[in-house]
Amino acid sequence: MSVVSELLQYNRQFVENKGYEEYLTDKYPDKQIAILTCMDTRLVELLPKALNLRNGDAKIIKNAGAILTQPFGSAMRSILIAIYEMGVKEVFVIGHHGCGMTGLNADGIIEKIKAQGIPDIVLETLNKSGIRMERFLKGFQTVEEGIMQSVEIIRNHPLLPKTIPVHAFVMHPDTGEMELLSEGYEYLKQRDG
């Protein structure tokens, strides 16, 4: 049985058995928070459980390493929409120890791309169009560095309301323990003080 068939078979049973009922909520986050976090599989259930979040409490935006590479990408757009359209009042950026983006080598990924049959001309065309693969596929040296880079992009975004606190955390992917890197309330106090 293919993965698609297996998932669809389970889904039919889930709907027939009304398994969705315990997850019913609306689109507005009850705790009025948005979380930018990593797509790591270890965080799928652990992160919400470790923070006592249930379905409907938060907008959770995931990408590799919780990295914002530029201020006008899709993850930042999601944060702004969550604030302006969904009532979000605080933003959390949560990375984790042991992240695959730590020390990520763009050249190594480019070689894997080529090994999958993507011709050099495609990469050359992207480069000529202004897409720098070294930057696009860049990781970070430490998870703390990567998280704080994302936090700084959010905090300094020209469209972010100046009243929104942006917090930075690193999570242990085995235990769920959270380490505070930067508290948004304190940052706003110092900035405005």
TrEMBL record:
Leading EC class: lyase
GO MF entry, a single one: carbonate dehydratase activity
Keyword hit for Aminoacyl-tRNA synthetase: no
Cofactor: Zn(2+)
The keyword Metal-binding is annotated on this UniProt entry: yes
Binding site residues for Zn(2+): C38, D40, H96, C99
Name recorded for this polypeptide: carbonic anhydrase
Originating species: Cohnella terricola
Lineage, top ranks: Bacteria, Bacillati, Bacillota, Bacilli, Bacillales
